[in-house]
Amino acid sequence: MAANSSTRPFITFLMVSRRLRPGYDYLVSRKLCSLWHELTDSCLDPDLNQFITAALELGFTQRVASAIGSQIIARC
């Protein structure tokens, strides 16, 4: 929880590469805004693409699907 702006990108990288699984207290209290940079070519990228495709088919806009998708995928 004491991570500052210098260490948050590294924590995000560790989360996306599945080397770190933070607790719900961290996930709920943080806005995970730098995920798009870390998700490209990660093992989570196919899951995110599948989520966005399903959201678009349900009528959500690309913007909403992307915004929600990046937050959900990090918390899985």
Structural class: mainly alpha
Uncertain segments are: none
Q: Looking at the structure, what is the overall shape?
A: globular
Number of helix segments?
A: 5
Task: List SSEs in N-to-C order.
Answer: HHHHH
Q: Give the DSSP E fraction (strand runs of 2 or more residues).
A: under 5%
Count of DSSP strands: 0
Please tell me how large the radius of gyration is: 13 Å
Main sheet overview: none
- Portion of residues within helices: 55-70%
Give the termini separation. 19 Å
Explain this structure to me?
There is one protein chain. Helix 4 packs across helix 5 (62-75). This protein starts with 7 loop residues before the first helix and ends with a helix. The radius of gyration is 13 Å and the shape is globular. Helices cover 62% and strands 0% of the residues. The longest helix has 14 residues, at 62-75. The protein contains 5 helices and no strands. With 76 residues, the protein is mostly helical.
Produce a short descriptive summary.
By secondary structure, this protein is mainly alpha-helical. The protein has helices at 8-16, 24-29, 35-39, 45-57, 62-75.
